[in-house]
């Protein structure tokens, strides 16, 4: 399986109601099963980086980027995933 991006519609994350939370599940090299039930709000991976304001692109690199946004037009919180430059994203 390649990397998988999962969106949780109306996840009520960070104390805000009806928000969207996105999770990325990275490809495993081993032939083990992937247990989605083990992913929770207590996991250590959260991607919420909009890039460097001084860069030409959001992540400061010329690599491909993926934008995941809300379907509503109110406040869009964008998640940026960089295909090759993981050092340009903040993962907490």
What's the layout of helices and strands?
Blueprint: E1 4-8, E2 21-25, E3 65-68, E4 79-82
Antiparallel strand pairs: 1-2, 3-4
- Mean pLDDT score, rounded? 54
Alpha-carbon distance between the two ends: 24 Å
The strand count comes to 4
Helix content: under 10%
Strand order of the largest sheet: 1-2
Radius of gyration (CA) equals 14 Å
Key words describing this protein structure:
92 residues, 0% helix, mainly beta, disordered C terminus, 20% strand, two-stranded antiparallel sheet, two-stranded antiparallel ribbon
Question: What this model shows, in words?
Answer:
- With 92 residues, the protein is mainly β.
- It is built from no helices and four strands.
- The chain has strands spanning 4-8, 21-25, 65-68, 79-82.
- The protein has a two-stranded antiparallel sheet with strand order 1-2. It has a two-stranded antiparallel sheet with strand order 3-4.
- The chain starts with a strand and ends in a 10-residue tail after the last strand.
In short:
The chain has strands spanning 4-8, 21-25, 65-68, 79-82.
């Amino acid at each position: 399986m390649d990397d998988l991006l999962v969106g949780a519609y109306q996840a009520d994350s960070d104390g805000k109601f009806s928000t969207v939370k996105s999770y990325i599940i990275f490809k495993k090299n081993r032939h083990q099963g992937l247990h989605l039930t083990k992913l929770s709000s207590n996991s250590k991976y959260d991607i919420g980086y909009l890039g460097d304001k001084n860069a030409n692109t959001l992540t400061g690199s010329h690599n491909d980027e993926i934008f995941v946004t809300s379907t509503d037009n109110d406040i869009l919180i964008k998640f940026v995933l960089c295909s090759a430059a993981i050092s340009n994203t903040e993962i907490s």
